[in-house]
Amino acid sequence: MKQKKMKPIAWVAVSLILILVSCIGASLIQTDFGSVTITDVRLPMPDGETLRVLVHRPAAATPENPAPAVITSHGYHATLETQDITSIELARRGFVVFNMDTYSAGSSSGTTIPYNDSRSYYGLGMLQLVDYVHDNIDYVDPERIGITGHSTGGRNVAFTLDAYGRNEHGLDYAGQPDDAGDYETKVSSALILAFFPGHYLLNNMPSGVNVGINFARYDEGTTVQVTKVDGYQWPDMTVSPEAKFFINTTTPGAFALQADAAVDPQTGHNDVTLSGWDNSEKVETGKYYGSIEDGTMRVVYNPPTSHQWQFFSKQNATITNQFFMDTLGAPNPITADDQVWFWKEVLNAVGLAGFFLLLIPLATLLMQTPFFGTLLQPAGPARPAPVTARGKAVFAVSLILLAVLPGLTVMPAFSDIAYGMIFTNAATNNSTDFFPQPGPNAIIVWAVLNAVLAALIFAAGYFIDGKKSGDSPSKWGLRTSWANVGKSLLLAFIVMVCAYSTVLFADRFFKTDFRFWSFAVRAADGNILALWLHYVPFMLVFWLVTSFMVNVSARVQTKKPWVNTAMCVVVNTIGLIGLCAVQFFVLFTTGVAAFYVNRAWVNICLIIPFIPMMAIGTVVLRKAYQRTGTIYLGAFLMAFISTLVSVSTANAILFV
User: Fold this and answer.
1) Does residue 36 lie within any of the structural domains?
2) Positive or negative CA dihedral for 208, 214, 220, 225?
3) Distance CA 286, CA 298 (A)
4) Is 90 domain-assigned?
């Protein structure tokens, strides 16, 4: 007996239930079941910028009982939600946590000065936020403020410490803003993740601050941050001269090392040349060198993980918890490895599933209305599988090319074309006024390139075999009225707005969103959402061609239609998966990433979230085609959604 299919309204209900379960569950975890209050604030900064900050305030933190505080910063191509782990776990332990969107990211404003200057002199807002918290928040103990961050966030920590060091040591850097040396030290503890400060930064740290550096043993960016010691893995902190110098700055003579310091007349940096280290002397990772009480403690961590995994790791959460419990004192000293953050990630992922599950049932439901009902058309029969030797060869070669080219084109499209030929302004981090997002800038170049290549592959196959085998444009799902194309566009937009409303609902009432690791659908402000219009035309080209390839070129008759859909998912993702597999296989076997020159490893970080997007998108394209008989609805829907996801999670180099 044939099983009865669920109606669209039932699938919509299931999707909304998943979303609601996600919102409630994730909120309960991040508020520690009501004992932590989370407040979303926009803080005006001295130079006219605005910082968006999520404040995690334990109930015990009051003006009568001020608590220690930690300010945390996310990395590049990211937003504050990637610091949820730090925020949740420290707040459980009684710390007030200020989780910031840096300038030019998330819901914070752009900068009033060039982006790189804001980063170098103000830590993209961290320096000013410390001042604000220290001087204005009465439920925070001003003597117990810590700072931390991952990647660019770690860089922000280092530059904040450098500002204090300049003030303390009377240094003036070339071109620094007038007030850049006016900031007095207002932190007592700092933990830098996924960034190893340069020699001049290590040499200019302020006194009275306990500092830790957590640099992964397999960090992809290691080649431009620390010295390679012969006979050892590149980022091996046990023999790193930079790690030894860092410890020696407050514990002189801890390691044999010659450090020759001189102020660079061009930059004003008090730079250092290192020599004479002894590889038989080993840094003990995780050991506290110096004194916490005197503010001279230095510690280096070197966990066996990679850059991207460091903000999504129990081991690194344990390190962060223990470091701040030891250096600031925890009002609620829970064991460092007692953690709940992963359950929030699981619940966020439930919402992510609900969000994407909503798309096709909602579209189908709306197509039952009179206006959109004209879109409901049965899809034509799938093409017969090729039977001739030539036909089989063309089909196989086409699939192989379509599978491998997306992975093979990432590096040339990102590094050589996007950043090397089109978006070349390093001062604005490879962005322009109209295209202010460096990450999406590279993605649209890659997407259009692959759309062109896919179209050429189909055209070649058509003229070599398809036309002779009876294929014709009338069978391609292209022909429909312009009215139906317009309705498809409108329907896709309505579905996107409805689906995204669930994200805004989650953000407004539960202070959460839908994500897992680096794949996220988050709420963004209007100025960021406006950028959707800038990028969506290019993604329309990509998804229209992809829809055509999935539903025309690769849709052949099989006993079970889902087998063909699964094949298309594999074809559309295997190249990107293979690229990432090569990157991490080489990284974890040699200690150095396969792609690292000119920060090529960042390209991998950018493309990883596109793997699940391609898998989900392929299914959406097929389901939409089955309901409408044309390629348009699915293509419009995925172009709209993927662009929305991309712009809402990316940095935007904007000026106030």
Assistant:
1) no
2) positive
3) 10
4) yes
For 198-251, what is each residue's pLDDT tens digit?
999 999 999 999 999 999 999 999 999 999 999 999 999 999 999 999 999 999
Residue 116 in any domain: the answer is yes
610/562 Cα distance (integer angstroms): 22
CA dist., res. 56 & res. 222, Å (int): 33
**DSSP strand pairing (67-73 vs 140-150):** parallel
In this structure, the strands spanning 189-193 and 140-150 are: parallel
Last residue of a domain, one of 303, 335, 367: 335
**Which of 287, 302, 335 is the C-terminal boundary of a domain?**
335
Query: Which of 154, 87, 523, 146 minimizes the C-alpha distance to 341?
Result: 87
Q: Do residue 71 and residue 181 come from a single domain?
A: yes
Task: Report if residue 76 sits inside a domain.
Answer: yes
Q: 120, exposed or middle or buried, with CB in 10 Å at 0-12, 13-18, 19+?
A: buried
> Can you tell me the distance from the alpha carbon of 77 to that of 99, in angstroms, rounded to the nearest whole number?
16
* Residue 109: half-sphere exposure toward Cβ, Cα within 13 Å: 16
In this structure, how many other beta carbons lie within 10 angstroms of the beta carbon of residue 338? 11
CATH number at residue 79: 3.40.50.1820
Indicate if 461 and 552 belong to the same structural domain: yes
Residues 230 and 271 placed together within one structural domain of the fold: yes
- How large is the angle between the packed helices 314-328 and 84-92, nearest 10 degrees? 50
Indicate if 330 and 366 belong to the same structural domain: no
Does residue 617 contact residue 543 with C-beta atoms inside 8 Å?
A: yes
pTM for the predicted model, two decimal places? 0.94
Residue range(s) defining the domain that contains residue 562: 358-649
Residues 6+ apart with CB under 8 A from 46: 128, 179
Residue 189's nearest CA partner among 208, 204, 215, 166 is 208
Q: Which residue is it, tokens 């809402």?
A: 648
Q: What tokens appear for 39 in the block?
A: 């407040």
Helix, strand, coil percentages (3-state) for the chain, rounded to 5, are 50, 10, 35
pLDDT tens digit sequence for 378-437:
888 888 888 899 889 999 999 999 999 999 999 999 999 999 999 999 888 899 999 999
